[in-house]
Amino acid sequence: MAESDWDTVTVLRKKGPSAAQAKSKQAILAAQRRGEDVETSKKWAAGQNKQHFITKNTAKLDRETEELHHDRVSLEVGKVIQQGRQSKGMTQKDLATKINEKPQVIADYESGRAIPNNQVMGKIERAIGLKLRGKDIGKPLETGPKGK
What we know:
Mean pLDDT: 78
Number of strands: 0
Shape: elongated
Distance between the termini: 74 Å
Low-confidence stretches: none
CATH topology of the domain at 73-137: 434 Repressor (Amino-terminal Domain)
CATH superfamily of the domain at 73-137: lambda repressor-like DNA-binding domains
Order of helices and strands: HHHHHHH
CATH class of the domain at 73-137: Mainly Alpha
Number of helices: 7
């Protein structure tokens, strides 16, 4: 009965270093000396609240100089959205709910304050049935079969 010998101990797996120990400089150097693969990466703004980091380029765009500015939705498009929405008997909130956006987004598009987004414009076009992009703004949307 060699299997029941109490003097021998079999270790199946060794517990690795804890997270705090693995991050220490000493643990990294020891692993490098043993020839293990060590990968280190610095997390950007780790432990800080720097989600809204302003770079030089965005600061320039925010100042909106003459050569660098955000394009806005034209007032013509805003009026078409408003008229199409009212002809369908919808409020801004109803239209926003229908296209899964916030009511403020619709208000911004109608007032000409919004920066155009093709996905949002497409949703609004389908909801009110009027074209908002291209040459024939305000014309009825052609609903033909989709080609594959």
